[in-house]
């Protein structure tokens, strides 16, 4: 079985053309990052690139597409609509597509309060084992074929201020994940756990306090060995840390639509374990 893992597609509206009054102070501050930092330029083609990656899922013979958060730049309604339409028919099919939120998808309290992410992607968070849910729809479980299951977690929390981008899964979801791991119905399946924040950097170290996954060690402690993979984004670098006896595979998909760095991981599952990953670059 084969999975295409992408992340951090950051569909970005033309902020300079929007009425500033409606943006709110958090996005005002973020505009410096967009214009001075060149983000607007880096994601100008994001919709088109995401549509190409979605089409690649079928072309590559992948059974399932996983997008591990940061679908938007700053959680605007139009950015969610853009992500949904770029995914096309894939976004309508929970059998073939899993999507979880990133910190940019809950960028403002308003976007979180109004459930903007869930309005566009809630249908993809249905669970085949709903008894294991602990916090809203999480963790949800999607059975894929005979040999794999995808588990969706949420580490995205409304940041207290721009610049703070840390996240956590939390005790309730971890307890649900422990129940998923112990579920005998899943014993012969590889588990691909999608979470936005990176448990480890490309160098294998914990990410820093204002950016990292606060309960990374607790998460990794539940997922030991090659039966498990954590599929994440947040750090905009593509890397794979292979599983050991004490740790799952870690796949960081990087930012799949960032100009010059487009792509993700093609992950192979066989015999109830994750057996490898290949970098995939779309033809644009
Ligand atoms: Fe991101
Ligand atoms: Fe992020």
Describe the protein's architecture and organization.
The chain has helices spanning 24-35, 39-42, 46-59, 77-87, 109-113, 116-121, 171-182, 216-221, and strands at 2-6, 64-67, 97-99, 140-144, 148-152, 190-194, 228-232, 238-241, 249-253, 264-270, 273-280. It is globular, with a radius of gyration of 17 Å. It has 8 helices and 11 strands. Helices cover 25% and strands 20% of the residues. It has a single domain, classed as Metallo-dependent phosphatases (Purple Acid Phosphatase, chain A, domain 2), CATH 3.60.21.10. With 284 residues, it is of the alpha/beta class. A 6-stranded mixed beta sheet has the order 4-5-6-7-9-8, covered by helices on one side. The structure holds fe (ii) ion (FE2) (2 copies). One fe (ii) ion is lined by residues 70, 102-104, 165, 196, 234.
């Amino acid at each position: 079985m084969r999975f295409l893992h992408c992340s951090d597609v950051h569909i970005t509206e033309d902020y300079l053309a929007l009425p500033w009054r409606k943006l709110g102070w958090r996005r005002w501050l973020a505009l410096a990052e967009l214009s001075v930092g060149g983000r607007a330029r880096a994601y100008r083609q994001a919709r088109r690139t995401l549509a190409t990656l979605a089409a690649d899922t079928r072309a590559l013979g992948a059974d399932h597409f996983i997008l591990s958060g940061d679908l938007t730049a700053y959680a605007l309604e139009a950015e969610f609509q853009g992500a949904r339409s770029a995914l096309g028919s894939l976004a309508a099919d929970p059998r073939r597509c899993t999507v979880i939120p990133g910190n940019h998808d809950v960028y403002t309290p308003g976007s979180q309060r109004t459930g903007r992410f869930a309005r566009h992607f809630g249908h993809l968070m249905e669970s085949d084992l709903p008894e294991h849910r602990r916090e809203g729809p999480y963790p949800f479980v999607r059975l894929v074929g005979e040999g794999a299951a995808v588990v969706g977690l949420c580490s995205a929390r409304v940041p207290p201020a721009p610049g703070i981008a840390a996240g956590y899964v939390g005790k309730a979801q971890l307890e649900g994940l422990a129940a998923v791991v112990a579920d005998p119905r899943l014993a012969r399946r590889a588990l691909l756990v999608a979470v936005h924040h990176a448990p480890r950097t490309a160098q294998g170290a914990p990410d820093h306090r204002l950016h990292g996954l606060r309960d990374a060690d607790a998460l990794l402690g539940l997922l030991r060995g090659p039966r498990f993979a954590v599929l994440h984004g947040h750090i905009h670098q593509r890397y794979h840390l292979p599983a050991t006896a004490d740790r799952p595979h870690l796949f960081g998909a990087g930012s799949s639509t960032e100009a010059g760095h487009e792509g993700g991981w093609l992950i192979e599952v066989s015999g109830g374990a994750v057996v490898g990953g290949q970098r995939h670059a779309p033809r644009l």
